[in-house]
Amino acid sequence: MKVFISGNIAPIALKQLEENNISITQWKEDRQITQEELIEACKNQAGLVSVGPNKIDSEFLNACKHLKVIALHSVGFDQVDVGEAKKLKIPIGNTPGVLSGATADTAFLLMLAVSRKAFYLHKKIIDGKWQNYEPTPELGIELNGKTLGVFGLGKIGLEMAKKCMAAYNMKVVYHNRSRNEEAEQEIQAEYVSFNELLAQSDVLTVHTALTSETTGKFSIDVFKKMKPASIFINTARGGIHNEQDLIRALEEKIIWGAGLDVTNPEPMKKNNPLLYMENVAVLPHIGSATEETRAAMAELIVENIVAGLKGEKIPYPVY
Ligand code: DGY
């Protein structure tokens, strides 16, 4: 059985696929594979491990109907036309659960970095602009006892909430499409309306999927309902905030700061004003990028591929 892997994945996955007598072809170039190249590469394959943002859309799925399984190297599956995959009966799997801790760590890192202007001040040293010790340089703000607002209290949001409670005794409010009663019991998070979430949050952290409902959700009108001293964190998908509106909200001091692990587009352009603002920290979509988490994701990918190739029900289906 042959499988195409469209990028770099943890070596453990390659080893395990080979142990299952699966023959691998891997995209090795230092750029994202194009859609046409991906279709071409999948022609004689039985399975695909999809690494990165390639669209598993109707065009791709219809051109690659022969695939017995597609294993995503992500928990998010906004790049997939699930309806079409269902229609064509192509099983698609993702990597749920195993990356919650690492992604929440990234959100926490960004929150702390923004609150103390860490990325900006680090760059100041590199640029030779740190002249002498000053008691009132660019001052940060503290997080202790503040209110964390979680937009999307699922597994990752819950991990982020727990870290903020343990580190800073933060109060947690959240907004979801439907209440997460289990999480409410576990951490005493309070369910609030979206407008209340905006009004109450000192730090607002986004952990929801990118859907038609959440695309562009954080627009200027929404930022205007947030506290002027608040911090906006997004480690979910760049499409959930409107980037021009976020820039305006920061420039006009409508909100205090922002931390982003996801941008729209990715990669972010070098001249993007967000990269040069004092109260902003940007990372290149590294939410789950730890040795441990990538190895754990690799195992789920292998399980999905092996089951799919055997014609069995895959263990981590997206539908
Ligand atoms: C995920 O798993 O969804 C990460 O954001 C990588 O895309």
Walk me through the structure.
This protein has 319 residues and is an alpha/beta fold. The protein folds into two domains: 117 residues, Rossmann fold (3-Layer(aba) Sandwich); 183 residues, NAD(P)-binding Rossmann-like Domain (Rossmann fold). The chain is 36% helix and 14% strand. It contains twelve helices and twelve strands. Strands 8-7-6-9-10-11-12 form a seven-stranded parallel sheet, with helices on both faces. It has a five-stranded parallel sheet with strand order 2-1-3-4-5. β4, α4 and β5 form a beta-alpha-beta unit. It is globular. The structure holds (2R)-2,3-dihydroxypropanoic acid. It catalyses: glycolate + NADP(+) = glyoxylate + NADPH + H(+); (R)-glycerate + NADP(+) = 3-hydroxypyruvate + NADPH + H(+); (R)-glycerate + NAD(+) = 3-hydroxypyruvate + NADH + H(+). It comes from Pedobacter chinensis. One of its GO terms (cellular component) is cytosol.
